[in-house]
Amino acid sequence: MINGAIFDLDGTLLDSMGVWEVYGTGYLESLGVAAKPGLNETIIRMSLAQGCEYLRKEYNLPLTVKQIAEGINDMVYDEYAFRVQPKPGAVKFVRKLFDRGIKMAVATATDEPLVSAALKRIGILDCFGKIFTCTKVGHGKDEPIIYNEALSFLGTDKSDTVVFEDALHCAFTAKNAGFRVIGVQDDFEKKSDEMRELCDGFYMSFEEFDLKELI
Q1: pTM recorded for the entire structure
Q2: Which of 11, 30, 45, 92 could disulfide-link 166, Cβ–Cβ 3.0 to 4.6 Å?
C-alpha cells in the first residue's frame, strides 16, 4: 500500500521530451550562435539550471543563468500551455490516486510556470500538493535532494511513497536514495532494459497499470 507518490513530468506524465531534445541548439540559434556537435546530447540529462550554466560557460554568453533560463522558457512556453499532450492513461491514473486520497507532488527539471500551464490545461494541477523543480531546489536529479524535499512535504514514509520516472539516471538516483521506483516507458530513454532491471515495476504506459499493485 502507498500513501504518497512523487511524479516526474517530462516523459512520465507528459509526452514532452521532444521539446527539450533540441532546446540548446534552438536557443543558441536565436542568439545567432552556432552550436557545437553533440550539444543537445550533452545537456539533455541536465536540469535547466545546469544546462543554462553549461551554455553560458561553453559559449561565453554575456548573460546570467537566470537570463538564459528565462529566454529558453519563453521559447518553449507555448508548447506547454497549448500543445504538449499527456502520456496515455496519465490523467486518469493521477485522478484515481487523487480520489483515493494519495498525497502527490511533482519533482521535475522543468520550471514551474511551464509545469503549471500544462497540468492545468490537461486537468490535473489540483491533484498535486506542490511542484518541486530543480531550479527552486538548487540541485539536479543527479542528486536525491528534490525527491527528499518532496517526501518531506508529503509527510509520508519513504517506505510507502513511490517515485514515477521515465529516465534511467533519475530512476537510479531515486532508487539509491531508498525509494520504491516505478518506471514508465518513454521513447527518448534508450535503455529500457536497464530501467526494467532497476525499477520495482516498469510499464509501457499508465493504461496497463493495475492500481491493486500499489493500494
Answers
A1: 0.91
A2: 11
User: According to the model, what pLDDT value does residue 215 have?
Assistant: 62
Under-70 pLDDT residues of the chain: 212-213, 215
Buried b (16+ CB within 10 A) or exposed e, 108-137: bbbbbebbbbbbebeebeebbeebbbbbeb
Q: How far apart are CA 151 and CA 104, in angstroms?
A: 9
Nearest alpha-carbon partner for 41 in 22, 58, 57, 63? 22
- In angstroms, the CA 134 to CA 138 distance is 6
